[in-house]
Amino acid sequence: MVQFFNPTNGSSVEIDAKSYQQFEKLKIDVCKALDIGTDYYFKYGNSICQDLTSVQIATDVVQVLPIKHAQGPPTTPILGNIPDMLFGPGPEVNLKRIFNEYGPVVKLFTFSTEQRLVSDPIDAEVVARESEYFTKEIRFPFSVTKCLGGDGLFTSSTSDPHWELAHKLLMPTFSPKAIKNYTHEIFNITIALKKIFDTFAKDGTPVPLNHHMTNVTFESIGRVGFGYSFHVLDTPDALSHPFLEAMGYCLGELINRMLTPDFVKAMPLPANKKFNNSIALMKKTVDEVIAARKSKPKGEKENKDLLDFMLNAADEHGTKMPDGLIRDQVITFLIAGHDTTSNTLTWAIWLLHQNPVWLKKVQDEVDGLHWSLDNPEQMDVSKLSIVERVLKETLRMHPPVQRISKVCKKDTVLPSGYFVPANTNCVISANALHNNPDVYPEPQNFNPDRWLPEEESKRSPFSWLPFSIGARGCIGRQFAMLEAKIVLATIVRYYHFLIPGAENVKPLTSSAIRKATPFNIKFFNREVGVAPPKLADMKEASSTSSLSPTKIGAVSKSVGKRVPVTVLFGSNTGTSMDYAEQVANIYKDMGFTVLTKPLNDWAPVKAGTYEPLPGNDLMRELIIIVSATYNGNPPENAELFDKFMNKMALAKASLAGIGFSVFGCGNSEWRTYQAFPIKICNFFEELGAYKINPRGEANAKVGDMDTSFEYWVAALWTMTVTKFGLQVEQVPRTTEDVTYDDAKVDCVETSEVAKNYLIKPKNAKVISTSEEQNPSITQRSTKNILLSLPEGQIYLPGDHVEVYPLQDPTIVKDFAAITGIDLDMAFEIKEFSNRVSSRSLLASVRGPFTFRALLTAAADLTSPPTRTILKVFGDALQKDPVTSELGKKFVEMSGPDGKQAFTEFLKEHRTILDFFKHYGQHAKKLKLKDWLACIQIVQPRRYSISTSQKKGKVIGVLIAEHVDEINKKKYFGLASHYMCNLKVGDEVSIHVKSCKDTFRLPENDSTPVIMIGAGTGLAPFLGFLEDRKLNNLKSISKGGKSTTHLIFGCRNEGDTLLKDQMKKYVEDGTLDGYHLALSRPSSGDKKYVQDIIWDQKDLFYDLVKNKSAKIYVCGAGTMSKGVKESFERVFEHFKDGKAYFETVVKESRFSEDTWG
């Protein structure tokens, strides 16, 4: 028996499906039993049931869902929907509007021919595959392509015997082994292109880029495939080959001919005559090539290229391709093999020009591989991973072939539930597919990191179809990617380039291939390790895209336009504020008037509305924002700004006249990584502000956030200079430069004030401390610490406490011994005007202070050395001939080109103390203000509170001592080591930080609570449970009205924190269920918290879906992601779909407190 369920009205029925002989009869009976019409379809799991067998094998519920019928714009007489597609802003924008208005499947008419257009990967997967439901069939309006390609692979139907024969015979010619054999000739052709570009690079002659990309790809397919040179790369001014001219004309006419009735195409008109003559010329040229090859005596080796293979290959029956079919294949390869690749290269170079951060990354990659055309046989193209990602992202944004057309062979229902009648053209819109925001967040942004393996694996392979896929996919895909990688890597390696008027480049709307509007490019010779030429030398003072994105140049303050600039920041730990101040200084250097404020203090936030500055310019003011995020929420000094955004978005207010850019700081371990910066960016863009350059982001997970910031801020500088017509005078400094020449550090009298300066008043006393692990077994320590609550401070369960740690006295003494400083000497820092990081000691303290107080309470000596330290040390060491080489090495590592060396350096010098131990003998070369400028100030550490204030004036924390062992040396976390070594009676400085209702128990005590934590992520739940117990909340089984479950994850039995306490909570009814997940158990299967959710899916599904439970997660960000994915899997299992999880989030029933 099969259970059929109608989720629309909740009805269900069981029917013996195996007793039926006809699918339609079963469908009629099911619908009748459910008392619904027959316009329904069956769905089992994620699959549509379209035959009897697919229903009979069902072992779970089969859903009965209403069929959807595609809608579309009203048609006009004769033309159908052609005006809706072609008029107005153009096909791309029109199609996006149509999909937004009518859904993922739309109905359109070309004249009287009905079509379905799809934009969702789940539907594209079904349409793209050759199956009993869909096939490729060349019919109107695409039948016009037959006149070009004849029976070639691209222009023949799957049912055509010629297609089957050619496909079978040609597959080996594009095997990995065959592709490898083509590499040498592609390098030779690229060398010819370089010779031409070298000529142009001598004086920056502007040249049409697409013309030369067309020549190189055309010559490549001609020589590699057919041993025929079109001589278009012989000289810089080589004439275009007649074949190329004829083909270009025909391709340009395709769309016009698609829209032209047949009787008009048959008339003796000049355009028809030229088209037909061009076709005849192409066929004649290829026929001559084939005849010449056949007339040559057979050599010892056959099949040395594609043409030889076509002439000699035969199938298992001995059938060969006739000459006419070979000619059609040659023309097809010449068209498809050059035009798509040439346009991809053109778009890729333009995108790199517009995104200098990515241009620099590609430059670094090819430089790192020592890319050279002098030794092409030593070049490993497979290592061009960033180049490949750039090309994939280019193909996503600008797919050469924008429509993949199939024919529906019989009535079917797509996975999205839309009905497609038999004999209907069904078209996958590559543009809509590739710009689907549910698949590609912020699809308008160029982001090659979408193609990192871990990111690409998250998407359906049918979400990216520039080459189609399956049996009808592009046979030459690997050849095209090989050629594009070699050419792009060569151009980036050997040239800087400049595209005047690059912002005006748009896709042509009159071309069957997605071409860019024609533009010129200027090439300038590039040498590895040599700074790029000055802008004036590049003869284009209005553009800076060819400058290294890590260089910030001096700008003439008398040339160009200036508008007011406001730099806003949202900062928890000071990093974003520091970055904001650096941005502000750069704009001040360019002559702009600049204000720097927290996001909450922006004038429109305080006023409650935005009043635009007078004028009609696109950018009447600039707003630059640098912000962090915490669990997806704004920092404290951005909370009012967040409310302002919500208010303005609801009112659909206008921010026209603002130019803006956003940089986000975060950690991708968090599920909500970059959530708040993304919200800010979308807010400004959606309300009409102009985004001056793409949103930047720094990811603490991968380290070296400063480098990410420098790339972004340099690109911001580049675009500002370009947009406001500023004149660059020189390129003298990098963004990491610090200046503090007029800073003054005075020696003062040692006093009690100086001895205690920066040491926060100790306001809490240790009442008790207990070890919750067995360190001798687990090699780890976790302390449960109970403190007195400072006077005047209050908290609720879910809040945090900030701890101000003190440095281990041993480390303080070691540092003093290395540097030779007197710990009891006192100093005072005077105000100074030059710039230095706001996170540095020089900017953060004034004094008077003793060195002992400074090193104990303020200097962050256990963090890794920064590039600023290397820069400051290096500058000082270079002044002495004895140490100048070491100084030069440090300066090189501190710069953008030293990233790899710096990464290796950190492996041997884990902390600042390590660095000084190795190079402390040189510390005397530094002035006191030098190392005050490069060492950062300690930030307070934040921990979840593990108690309820209802217990009394106490506050608890659960802290695991952080220890890393590297090269047999132990490194302790500053705050955790400090806290875990406190004894009863010791005093400490703390401050309660409210979670602002983002992590609170439900107001309704009967709302079920699911708590999920790992390790010390248990802490807030200890506070929750203690609070519930003190409120006498009991489980239903114990006579109460609450339901509470805790899922706790740890390594093994020895890591199980407060296990006895949890058992008591279960026994007294405070807790319904305590579910333990051991990832490294002494016996049995390993489990993570997400496995518990799946194992007990019935319980947790019922609590969340039917009883509106609230879910709380505390622990590492990766765990939070796993929890999310597990709940999505549960919802999908119970037929609600993954998307139901977002409903839970929107209803504020999923709260997380996670860290990286």
From TrEMBL:
<dbReference type="GO" id="GO:0050660">
    <property type="term" value="F:flavin adenine dinucleotide binding"/>
</dbReference>
<keyword id="KW-0503">Monooxygenase</keyword>
<dbReference type="Pfam" id="PF00667">
    <property type="entry name" value="FAD_binding_1"/>
</dbReference>
<keyword id="KW-0560">Oxidoreductase</keyword>
<dbReference type="GO" id="GO:0005506">
    <property type="term" value="F:iron ion binding"/>
</dbReference>
<feature type="binding site" description="axial binding residue">
    <location>
        <position position="474"/>
    </location>
    <ligand>
        <name>heme</name>
    </ligand>
</feature>
<comment type="similarity">
    <text>In the N-terminal section; belongs to the cytochrome P450 family.</text>
</comment>
<dbReference type="InterPro" id="IPR039261">
    <property type="entry name" value="FNR_nucleotide-bd"/>
</dbReference>
<dbReference type="InterPro" id="IPR036396">
    <property type="entry name" value="Cyt_P450_sf"/>
</dbReference>
<keyword id="KW-0285">Flavoprotein</keyword>
<dbReference type="GO" id="GO:0070330">
    <property type="term" value="F:aromatase activity"/>
</dbReference>
<dbReference type="InterPro" id="IPR002403">
    <property type="entry name" value="Cyt_P450_E_grp-IV"/>
</dbReference>
<dbReference type="InterPro" id="IPR001433">
    <property type="entry name" value="OxRdtase_FAD/NAD-bd"/>
</dbReference>
<keyword id="KW-0274">FAD</keyword>
<dbReference type="InterPro" id="IPR023173">
    <property type="entry name" value="NADPH_Cyt_P450_Rdtase_alpha"/>
</dbReference>
<dbReference type="GO" id="GO:0020037">
    <property type="term" value="F:heme binding"/>
</dbReference>
<dbReference type="InterPro" id="IPR003097">
    <property type="entry name" value="CysJ-like_FAD-binding"/>
</dbReference>
<keyword id="KW-0813">Transport</keyword>
<keyword id="KW-0408">Iron</keyword>
<dbReference type="InterPro" id="IPR023206">
    <property type="entry name" value="Bifunctional_P450_P450_red"/>
</dbReference>
<dbReference type="InterPro" id="IPR008254">
    <property type="entry name" value="Flavodoxin/NO_synth"/>
</dbReference>
<protein>
    <recommendedName>
        <fullName>NADPH--hemoprotein reductase</fullName>
        <ecNumber>1.6.2.4</ecNumber>
    </recommendedName>
</protein>
<keyword id="KW-0521">NADP</keyword>
<feature type="domain" description="FAD-binding FR-type">
    <location>
        <begin position="759"/>
        <end position="1002"/>
    </location>
</feature>
<dbReference type="InterPro" id="IPR017938">
    <property type="entry name" value="Riboflavin_synthase-like_b-brl"/>
</dbReference>
<dbReference type="GO" id="GO:0010181">
    <property type="term" value="F:FMN binding"/>
</dbReference>
<keyword id="KW-0288">FMN</keyword>
<dbReference type="GO" id="GO:0005829">
    <property type="term" value="C:cytosol"/>
</dbReference>
<dbReference type="InterPro" id="IPR029039">
    <property type="entry name" value="Flavoprotein-like_sf"/>
</dbReference>
<comment type="similarity">
    <text>Belongs to the cytochrome P450 family.</text>
</comment>
<dbReference type="InterPro" id="IPR001128">
    <property type="entry name" value="Cyt_P450"/>
</dbReference>
<dbReference type="InterPro" id="IPR017972">
    <property type="entry name" value="Cyt_P450_CS"/>
</dbReference>
<dbReference type="Pfam" id="PF00067">
    <property type="entry name" value="p450"/>
</dbReference>
<keyword id="KW-0479">Metal-binding</keyword>
<dbReference type="Pfam" id="PF00258">
    <property type="entry name" value="Flavodoxin_1"/>
</dbReference>
<feature type="domain" description="Flavodoxin-like">
    <location>
        <begin position="565"/>
        <end position="717"/>
    </location>
</feature>
<keyword id="KW-0349">Heme</keyword>
<dbReference type="GO" id="GO:0003958">
    <property type="term" value="F:NADPH-hemoprotein reductase activity"/>
</dbReference>
<dbReference type="InterPro" id="IPR017927">
    <property type="entry name" value="FAD-bd_FR_type"/>
</dbReference>
<dbReference type="Pfam" id="PF00175">
    <property type="entry name" value="NAD_binding_1"/>
</dbReference>
